[in-house]
Amino acid sequence: MTTKLVLYNTLSRRKEAFEPLNAPHVGMYVCGPTVYGDPHLGHARPSITFDLLFRYLKAEGFKVRYVRNITDVGHLEQDADEGEDKIAKKARLEQLEPMEVAHYYTERYKAAMAELGVLTPSIEPHASGHIIEQIEFVKRILDEGYAYESNGSIYFDVEKYNEKYRYGILSGRNLEDIVTNTRELDGQGDKRHSYDFALWKKAAPEHIMRWPSPWSDGFPGWHMECSAMSTKYLGERFDIHGGGMDLMFPHHECEIAQSTSALGHDSAKYWVHNNMITINGQKMGKSLGNFITLEELFTGNHKLLAQAYTPMTIRFFILQAHYRSTLDFSNEALQAAEKGLDRLMKGIEALGKVKPAAQSSVNPAELAQRCEDAMADDLNSPMVISALFDWVRIFNQLVEGQQTITAEDLESLKATVNRWVFDVLGLRDEKSAAAAGGKDMVTPLVNMLLEMRMTAKANKDWATSDKIRDELTAIGIRVKDRKDGFDWEIE
Ligand code: ZN
């Protein structure tokens, strides 16, 4: 099992050849959503980035176990150890059971991801379903001496850990910087130091999400679920840990500290982070009024949106940037993505109409090679798309007869396009798919009608011929007559 894939590892700060620990098996863990609100634009980028990696590894022949968690407990406001649980707060405001909130938004998230063409991971474990595993993990850290109990809560002892290992190894911070940059003062609350973080929190009487533990009735700290669930499903060592750059500190840094203190080593071999989406140059945030949910994008129902954008337009927009680059959202950028995607899909439609010849004047292996090289270079999806665009021009030349291709080469070209456009980039043709509930029935039906029209014309039955053309035009299918037949496109 070999692959040319080279991945940027945040931990080593360089690109590394991808060598799985146990090929052909690959273990991949990605931090999923905290389910207390509608899925939004910020959710789309990590899910599409790691879907691209998942799809590519599968296309390369790996057997991938992809675990993406659902955070339904322990994620407190301000991402710190204080404040109300995000889900419990929503439940209180809407007078719902917390698990009702978590279930509702989990379903909304999954539906939106399906629209975006994001494949379902192999396992989607919930934090609330793994309290026992989290308690066991906390016990291991306590046994190793890297945590302390204080008033029923358990905190990670960052200073002790930092004596043997390095806290801040992933984000490139050191403890002194962290001390300088914390606003919290030592000696406030139950922690010894402001930079210590909770592994288990004793629940206040009004806190409704609570479980028994050896230390108190309470709940796990936010970072604990990922250490516990990745170890449970992928083992003490696995290949890839992914997530958005915003999770690097403190979340992933704390995960590394937890796993290293309990197991004696970090669990993940490659740490992969996608960059963030900004909106008109600004960070997305509820307080800035530029917070856009995926549903608002799909319907166009938001004051910042000039129009609705289809899920594939959003996906294409995200894939047109390298996952480690920043990506700025604007109507202009999305409209350009919409046009680009349309051009690509029309090109593929044209390829379907190419008639084979005795000789090839083009070499389909060149497209395959360009796509392969680009994706292997740290998932360079924009370069894959640019190779495909160069070939859309060739597809059109093939239809027009300015270039020729043999039947065998044509088959291999179509296979290359299928692999990259549909399997790896995960795009779908929304226009024909929408008309037939996912299966392209439009193409054969329109071709059949136009064949009938050719017969009518041959019989000088102009009334039938015109009727077929006019009715097709009326439903948005433009027919173009050619010397040797016809051509058509969906408006
Ligand atoms: Zn996580």
Describe the structure.
The mean pLDDT is 92. The protein is α/β, with parallel strands linked by helices and 491 residues long. The chain is elongated, with a radius of gyration of 27 Å. The chain contains 17 helices and 15 strands. It folds into three domains: 6-274, Rossmann fold (3-Layer(aba) Sandwich), CATH 3.40.50; 279-424, Up-down Bundle (Four Helix Bundle (Hemerythrin (Met), subunit A)), CATH 1.20.120; 442-490. Strands 4-3-9-10 form a four-stranded parallel sheet, sandwiched between helices. The protein has a four-stranded antiparallel sheet with strand order 5-6-7-8, covered by helices on one side. A three-stranded mixed sheet has the order 12-11-13.
CATH level 1 name of the largest domain = Alpha Beta
CATH superfamily membership of the largest domain, which one? HUPs
Number of strands: 15
Ligands (ions, cofactors included): zinc ion
Q: Tell me roughly what share of residues is in helical segments.
A: 40-55%
Unreliable segments of 5+ consecutive residues? none
Distance from N terminus to C terminus (CA atoms, Å) equals 45 Å
Shape: elongated
In total, the number of domains comes to 3
Q: Which secondary-structure class do the elements indicate?
A: alpha/beta
Strand neighbour order, sheet with most strands: 4-3-9-10
Please tell me how large the radius of gyration is: 27 Å
Strand content: 5-15%
Q: Helical stretch count?
A: 17
Q: Any idea of the CATH topology of the largest domain?
A: Rossmann fold
Largest sheet: 4 strands, parallel
Just name the CATH architecture of the largest domain: 3-Layer(aba) Sandwich
Mean of residue pLDDT values? 92
